[in-house]
Amino acid sequence: MPRFEIQLSNGESFYIRKKLTFWKDKYEFDNLGLRIEGNVWDLNFKLLDDRDQVIAEIAKELFHLTSTYTVTVYDESYADLVISLCVAIDYVEMLESQSN
Fold first, then answer.
1. Each residue of 25-60: pLDDT tens digit?
2. pTM of the prediction?
3. Contact between 46 and 57 (Cβ < 8 Å)
């Protein structure tokens, strides 16, 4: 199964991996350190820490010729992780659409 490692500038990393399902592709995030609430693959979700504080909100804007996102980061210490996560998800989606 495909697995992607995202390495951050501070040396930490997290992983996106594909799960086997019968109906549609499903991905899991390992070592992210945050909880995801919402729909990741429609890029409309929030990232929360272990105290349920919203760290960031990500939303994909519709009706653009290229991928366009609204990303709001509430805790600057997570900025690299949030942007890296958005880029990684967009990249995985692009690879999936090319293989279909």
1. 667 788 988 888 888 777 788 999 999 999 999 998
2. 0.77
3. yes
- Nearest residue to 40 (alpha-carbon basis) of 92, 100, 76: 92
Q: What share of the chain is helix, strand, coil (3-state, %, to 5)?
A: 25, 40, 35
| Residue linked to tokens 């949030």 | 82
Whether 32 and 40 have beta carbons less than 8 Å apart is answered as: no
Could you tell me which of 46, 16, 17, 44 has the C-alpha nearest to residue 34? 46
Phi and psi torsions of 76, nearest 5°: -60, -25
pLDDT, tens digit, 9 for 90 and up, residues 78-95: 999 898 888 888 887 788
